[in-house]
TrEMBL record:
It holds the Pfam family DOPA_dioxygen. PANTHER family: AFR070WP. This is DOPA 4,5-dioxygenase family protein.
Length: 119
C-alpha cells in the first residue's frame, strides 16, 4: 500500500481528478456535482476512458488556492473508496503531474508519455 504525501496549498491553481470505474460512475458524478454546488467550482466532462496522463476514467474539478483548504478535506471525507489525484496547474504539465501531485486514497501510476517531446 502506498503512503502518498498529503496535499499542501502552495500554488495558485489546481485540478482534482476523481478516478472511477463503471461500478463507481454514478458515485463519482455525484461527488463532482456536490463539489460544484457546494464550492461553486467548474467541473470538467466525465471521461469514460483514459485521457491524457490519467490511466483510469476521470472527472476534473478546477479550483484555486482560496478553495483549497475547504475543498481538499471535504473531498477526502466524501470520496468513499474513490481515488482523487490533486495537482498544481503551473503551466509545466510534467512537473504538475510529478513534483506537484498529491493523492487522496491510493496513488496510481500516471502515463507521463503524453508530456514527452516526440523524437
Amino acid at each position: 500500500m502506498n503512503n502518498p504525501k498529503r496535499p499542501v496549498n502552495i500554488h495558485q491553481a489546481y485540478h482534482a481528478h476523481v478516478y472511477f470505474e463503471q461500478e463507481t460512475l454514478h458515485q463519482a458524478i455525484r461527488l463532482c456535482e456536490q463539489a460544484s454546488k457546494r464550492f461553486a467550482l467548474k467541473i470538467g466532462r466525465v471521461n469514460q476512458k483514459p485521457v491524457g496522463p490519467h490511466p483510469k476514467w476521470s472527472c476534473q474539478i478546477s479550483f484555486n488556492d482560496k478553495d483549497f483548504d475547504a475543498l481538499i478535506p471535504w473531498l477526502d471525507a466524501n470520496r468513499q473508496q474513490l481515488t482523487v489525484l490533486v495537482h498544481a496547474v503551473t503551466g509545466d504539465d510534467l512537473r504538475d503531474h510529478t513534483e506537484y501531485v498529491y493523492w487522496l486514497g491510493e496513488s496510481i501510476a500516471l502515463d507521463l508519455s503524453c508530456f514527452q517531446d516526440p523524437a
